[in-house]
Amino acid sequence: MIIDIFQDTVCPWCRIGKANLLQALNMRGGERPQLRWRAFMLDPSVPKDGLPFMTTMKKKYGEQFSREGMLGRVVEAGTAAGLNFDFDKVEYMPNTRLSHRLIAIAPDGPKAELVEAIHRAYFEEGRNIGKQSVLLEIADGIGLDAGPLGARLDRGEGEAQVEEDFSMARRIGVSGVPFFIIGNKFALSGAQPPESFLKVFGRLEQQS
User: DSBA-like thioredoxin domain location, by residue (predicted)?
Assistant: First the structure.
């Protein structure tokens, strides 16, 4: 089984949805499916150097946005999924293209760990994941060889894969993330609970 995961590295609900998916896979047991991490940018217009986080959020969501309200719900949902979010440390809204390129060129084995490490660096430590130096430090922190990865990023590697993911998202109508395509048959949108994934796994097994 293959699971395609469309996500953005500054999307807190993507992190929560990912954690719920992995929990469901642990509950299911058996052979692990192949996870394919697909790039999606919630706001491609963010400049390369990023924008101030709080100012950007208030401009985007207007009166709907508040640290206690919108971000408070994220913190609550994260706690339920065993995750920590510290938005007091988040100062930047980075352009995430480079982080997606790094994920694209990373070895398949530690890819899920890399995605979580990037999420953790941003949401818990407030690091600027739009910077290549920061991303390579994150990669090094999980045991990847940052030197060759940096050289590959300098050569533009990963760009074609990221653009392919964007094109696929447009083609199949992905308008928000997280978005999961399971077994090339079923789609789930949003930070679904583990039970939702387990139901889909069961339906796939019935059809096999």
Answer: 3-199
CB atoms within 10 A of CB 84: 10
**11-41: per-residue pLDDT in tens?**
999 999 999 999 999 999 999 999 999 999 9
Domains of the chain with bracketed CATH: 2-207 (3.40.30.10)
Cβ proximity of 2 and 33 under 8 Å: yes
Q: 79-103, pLDDT tens digit by residue?
A: 999 999 999 999 999 999 999 999 9
d(C-alpha 23, C-alpha 191), whole Å: 13
Which H helix or E strand runs over 5? strand 2-7
The answer to whether the beta carbons of residues 148 and 158 sit under 8 Å apart is no
- For residue 137, the surrounding DSSP H or E stretch is helix 132-141
Contact by Cβ (8 Å): 8, 96: yes
Q: Which of 207, 181, 190 is nearest to 35 (CA)?
A: 181
Neighbours of 136 (CB within 10 A): 18
CA 163 remoteness from chain centre: 16
For residue 95, count other CB atoms closer than 10 A to its CB. Answer: 20
**Residue 25 CA from chain centroid, whole number:** 17
CB 78 within 8 A of CB 16: yes
**Stated pTM of the model:** 0.95
- Token pair for residue 166? 């964007």
Element of type H or E holding 21:
helix 12-28
